Amino acid sequence: MKVVGGRASQVLASRVAAALDCELLPCEFRSFPDGELYTRIDATTLDGEPVAIVQSLTSDTDFVCLLQLIEACEGLNASKISVVIPYLGYARQDRRFRSGEPISVRALTRCIFADEVFVVNPHSPEALKYFENARSVEALDAAPLLGEHFRKTKSVELVVAPDDGAAALAATVAGHAGVGYDVLEKTRLSAEEVEIKPKTLDVAGRSVALVDDIISTGGTIVKATSLLKELGASEVHVACVHAVLVPGAATRMLNAGVKEVVATDTLETIFSKVSVAELIARRLADAATTTTTTTSK
Ligand code: R5P
């Protein structure tokens, strides 16, 4: 197997190639004067060889790059095209919230033609069913790796999810860290006032890890951190799978009193302390030796 790294996932792709002990094909990415993306895989043929393309989809250009790489691999005669999407953007737009809106994640993912697709912690499991042109689609779960990180560092005594949407993720992280978990609960007291508190556990005097799948503006984390501090948490650590981090998000979180941010390398940031490369490599290797793959569609 050969590995190709898209422009958003060069470092992770090189780690996956190293874990698989296979070649990472060099690529060229640049823009034409009018802004169109130029992409080239530096190879003459992939005849008879399977290829894995690793590309996170944060920006619109990342989507274009992935589509170009898939087409380039077809042109190079790859025997099988596996697409690894460490971070699937647009997954929060997974339904029509108002009439006339697109299901954006469907609009984009159905353009992806591949033999198999692996997505690390898609925001919504719904998103996977929209890969209408992939033979199989599977989610990979990075939560155990975040849990292992905290088990090794012994830095937290409790894991907390900021909302119900992150509860399953927090439960897995806590299980692997060997600590308990709780979910923050929002109760509306009046039209203007809400109360947010942990459902069951007391955080006073304890070191807590707030866990979410995505951190974008940092707004959710800032709000939850203030609350945990008010409730007497001694330290607030933050963990996420996908550190999207719009400009200012990191500063906002650190100013709110967050002790540290731990993220995976699905997106390459200063907080990428846990790598998903082995997880991806193991699954690609397993899929290469089995004729059937799990489909979540
Ligand atoms: C929302 O449903 C997600 O799980 C995250 O909580 C959200 O994307 C975080 O966004 P932000 O950092 O902008 O609050």
Task: List key phrases describing it.
297 residues; alpha/beta; disordered C terminus; Rossmann fold; 15 strands; 2 domains; binds ribose-5-phosphate; globular
Number of domains: 2
Order of helices and strands: EHEEEEHEHEEHEHEEEHEHEEH
Q: What are the segments in which pLDDT stays under 50 over at least 5 consecutive residues?
A: 292-296
Overall pLDDT metric: 93
Largest sheet: 7 strands, mixed
The value of Rg in angstroms is 20 Å
Strand content: 25-35%
CATH architecture of the largest domain: 3-Layer(aba) Sandwich
Category from helices, strands and their pairing: alpha/beta
CA distance, first residue to last residue:
25 Å
Give the proportion of residues in helices: 25-40%
What binds here, in terms of ligands, is:
ribose-5-phosphate
Strand order of the largest sheet: 11-10-9-12-13-14-15
What spatial form do the alpha-carbon principal axes imply?
globular
Q: How many helices?
A: 8
What is the CATH fold-level name of the largest domain? Answer: Rossmann fold
Number of strand elements: 15
Query: According to CATH, what is the class of the largest domain?
Result: Alpha Beta
Write a compact overview of the structure shown:
With 297 residues, the protein is an alpha/beta fold.
General description of the model:
This protein is an alpha/beta fold. The chain folds into two domains: 2-141 and 276-296, Rossmann fold (3-Layer(aba) Sandwich); 143-274, Rossmann fold, CATH 3.40.50. Helix content is 29%, strand content 29%. Strand 13, helix 7 and strand 14 (260-264) form a beta-alpha-beta unit. Helix 1 crosses helix 8 and helix 4 crosses helix 5. The longest helix is centred in the N-terminal third of the chain and has 16 residues, at 60-75. The model is unreliable at 292-296 (pLDDT under 50). The protein binds ribose-5-phosphate. Residues 165-166, 212-220 line the site of ribose-5-phosphate.
